[in-house]
Amino acid sequence: MLDDVDRRLLRHFQADPTLTTAELAELCRISTSVCWRRIEKMQEAGIIQAQEAIIDWAALGYAVEVSLRVTLDKTQPRAFDEFMGVAREVPEVIEIQTFLGRVDVRLSVLAKDMAHYQQLYRDRILTLPHIADIEALMHIARVKSDEVLPL
Question: How far is CA 128 from the centre of its chain?
């Protein structure tokens, strides 16, 4: 699986994904070609899936973030698939998570302001198929946002 060099690479890569292969190699005390091959191997294995830009949505005018916990009508055999198909098409829904338990789905929704959220909620969210129950949680503050794991 992963050896100490791979773990070092991942630690540095998590800390700063903008590092070049040469910079990563120097930090890990390996050659650039070895570094590149190891990163490529971890990408092929699905360990490194992507490099992403982290956007400050508030800086772009999206001041309202709401987490919607949705329970679907489980009496409908295709409820889950039909709900997901339509929910994916709502551009303001930036994340969809599924769960086992009373809550089936969580949607993360961004809006410019409360008026925009109200319109979005009425026109796009409440028209999603097979909703049995929905609970809105208004985002107040992000206390921790980190996907870095100790390696």
Answer: 21
Distance CA 120, CA 107 (A): 13
CB 38 within 8 A of CB 6: yes
Band (75; pLDDT cuts 50, 70, 90): very high
- At 7-19, the pLDDT tens digits run 999 999 998 989 9
DSSP codes joined into one string, 20-60: -HHHHHHHHTS-HHHHHHHHHHHHHTTSS----PPP-GGGG
Cβ neighbour number for residue 149 with a 10 Å cutoff: 8
User: Which candidate, 127, 110, 130, places its Cα nearest to that of 67?
Assistant: 110
Token pair for 42 = 């971890």
8 Å CB contact between 130 and 83: yes
pLDDT on residue 51: 85
